[in-house]
């Protein structure tokens, strides 16, 4: 039987939960379809050891409800996955959201019925529903990927992907564990399990510029202050380029005397989180000279912390500082001083295949009991393209994006009326504190729906011209920035299928500008969107 709703939301993570809350506020009937057996999205799937925020907890939480802010207490400055998952359940229970969420329901098809101006969705387990509005809250790092090595299926030991971690704890004691991937996820796993494993072999293709997270419990006094300052913290996040609490010095780095610069790097290194990455100088993302100096500063830290100089050199990244997200670490480098941890540099000896008993590199076979894949995602477009979404004239999103994603403001695609994506391609999410960006997206989309209903419009679709212009603007937004020269990252879909790879998938103009553009477009009666 096909159920009818005003709106269907796909995904019950941070964005989907808030979307449901806002749709209800508008008085609309809505159903959320969620692939997981429970709510939480990213925080449901990524339950690997050491998974935690890289945003300060109080800057990541929802801002929409004062009661929620007052009632919830974060225990740490960067809370771990179990606490974040508990928080999302607390939110869902507090606002009675779960009764409108269907878990275990991965959406397979999303088809536009032109005659009735409705969307029809079907899940893999045969649930069907129709609605006028569809909001895809599927996350930008959800479609996990395994590397394309021969033999991935052949390994007879335990294979784990970080984004599909089992709910029961995995016992690594006495085991020979291999991990592929040294991005933010790999770093969190390595530093957490190194003391427990019998042997841990780290297969590193690219070293990353890690900065200390400096996580610690929130004291009673801090808790009191943070609650008092909650609104100021959100206001600060609205002002900063990336939606974080870190504000860069407004001067260009090289305008500041060297001694002062070095003292600032040290201070930011001590402060932790993304302070050194996002709170540096105003030209940190543009000036090679400034980025190289921070790189030298961090390289020396690595040399100080890793006892074997040869290992230290392998752990020092070769790419420009700041062009990828910086993993937040605690004792990551010290893990490589342990007798049971070994670093394999895949640039020297690439993986040739996975065998039944382990990982084979150009230098020979590494026998293992467990392989952990911390190899990331088909980023940004991945989850949207895994569904079969068909808009006007039966045209699929795959066809529409055959030459790379095209969007207007990152939220709509031409030919797909009344379908919106939260944190889709061409969002500022590249540098964004996710909840801050998700709230911006959700609130704008809900305002669109409200406007349509108040003005008697049935459908809203971006025009092709506005879509082309925004897509171009996103590519241009990265020009002149150092990230533009670092295409080997998920910002450019480096592990995505060919038609997406090599295209800048985000908007690098910053969150304040993005919010301003949203406001201007709405003030001009949704310029660039066709309302019927
Ligand atoms: P990332 O940042 O995409 O990292 C994936 C890692 O996996 C990275 O080190 C990759 O090396 C490595 N990788 C991917 N494919 C391979 C193959 N085939 N062989 C060897 N190594 C491989 O994903 P994360 O999950 O760590 O982090 C994602 C985001 O989550 C992050 O930005 C935070 O915001 C939270 P590569 O660099 O491609 O050489």
Residue fraction in strands: 15-25%
Stretches with pLDDT under 50, minimum 5 residues: none
Structural class: alpha/beta
Ligands, deduplicated: ligand NA7
What does the largest sheet look like? 8 strands, mixed
What spatial form do the alpha-carbon principal axes imply?
Answer: globular
Classified by CATH, the class of the domain at 2-39 and 97-143 and 378-457 is Alpha Beta
Q: What is the helix fraction of residues, given as a range?
A: 25-40%
Gyration radius, in Å: 23 Å
Q: What's the count of strands?
A: 20
Kindly list the characteristics that best describe this protein.
single chain; FAD/NAD(P)-binding domain; 17% strand; binds ligand NA7; 532 residues; alpha/beta; 8-stranded mixed beta sheet
Polypeptide structure, described:
The chain has 532 residues and is α/β, with parallel strands linked by helices. It has a domain at 2-39 and 97-143 and 378-457: FAD/NAD(P)-binding domain. The chain has helices spanning 14-25, 42-45, 57-60, 66-71, 81-94, 184-193, 220-228, 230-239, 258-271, 275-278, 288-305, 309-315, 332-335, 382-386, 397-400, 434-454, 464-478, 511-523, and strands at 2-10, 30-33, 101-102, 107-113, 118-123, 128-136, 158-161, 176-180, 199-204, 211-212, 328-329, 341-345, 351-354, 358-361, 364-367, 370-373, 388-390, 419-421, 460-462, 529-531. Strands 1, 2, 3, 4, 5, 6, 17 and 18 form an eight-stranded mixed beta sheet that branches. A five-stranded parallel beta sheet has the order 7-16-8-9-12, with helices on one face. A three-stranded antiparallel beta sheet has the order 13-14-15, with no helix packed on it. Strand 13 and strand 14 form a beta hairpin. Helix 1 runs parallel beside helix 16, helix 11 (288-305) runs antiparallel to helix 12 (309-315) and helix 16 (434-454) runs parallel beside helix 18. The longest helix has 21 residues, at 434-454. It is globular and about 70 Å long. The two termini are 30 Å apart. The mean pLDDT is 97. Ligand NA7 binds next to helix 6.
